[in-house]
Design brief:
The chain is mainly alpha-helical. It contains 9 helices and no strands. It has helices at 3-12, 14-37, 40-57, 66-89, 99-105, 114-129, 132-142, 148-155, 159-179. The longest helix has 24 residues, at 14-37.
Length: 185
């Protein structure tokens, strides 16, 4: 079922819409949540919360890319759950990659500031200027939290090649954001 049909179902018959949304994006959401939380039960709760949030939040203008919209919600919920869980345990666990940008980019509860919008615009512009392979590697690693070994396998590369490309791309991004005046070192 395509995204438009799912959105129509969510508007007309929420139960069927939720089933269709889960059928199309449930596994993707679960994979993303598990990569962040490393816990199936927490991930499943995030997926359920995501499905309900999507059904309740579909804006009147409808999202242009339902998959990205759904992934953003599940990722934010998983990161919030991770922060809560880690704070509760007083854990010393490290955060997910690009955590310095994550906090500023993934706030769904607060309205986006002009600074956040500018940062998102700059990152999107930077990624569009990269080669297709570097852009895909970067997104799979830092948005979808895919392990380097899985990414390497998907692209027929070895993990060291992927890691080197990701390192160079992150360095280029850091320099680009510094040049744009969006980060200060």
């Amino acid at each position: 079922m395509d995204d438009e049909a799912i959105l129509d179902l969510l508007s007309s018959d929420q139960n069927r819409g939720l089933c269709a949304l889960n059928a199309k994006y449930g596994q993707l959401c679960h994979t993303l949540a598990v990569r962040i939380l490393h816990n199936d039960q927490d991930a499943e709760e995030c997926v359920n919360d995501t499905l309900l949030a999507v059904a309740e939040r579909i804006p009147p203008g409808r999202p242009a890319y339902l998959q990205a919209y759904v992934c953003r919600i599940v990722k934010n919920l998983a990161l919030n759950r991770l922060a809560y869980r880690d704070a509760e345990k007083r854990s010393e666990r490290g955060t997910v990659p690009l955590s310095d940008l994550e906090e500023r980019l993934s706030e769904t509860a607060k309205p986006e500031t002009g600074e956040t919008q500018e940062l998102k615009r700059a990152i999107n512009a930077f990624l569009r200027a990269q080669s297709e392979i570097n852009r895909k590697l970067f997104i799979r690693r830092y948005w979808y939290e895919e392990p380097v070994t899985e990414t390497a396998k998907a692209f027929g590369m070895n993990p060291n090649q992927v890691s080197a490309r990701l390192f160079r791309t992150k360095e280029k991004l850091r320099k680009y954001l510094k040049k744009e005046g969006l980060i200060h070192e």
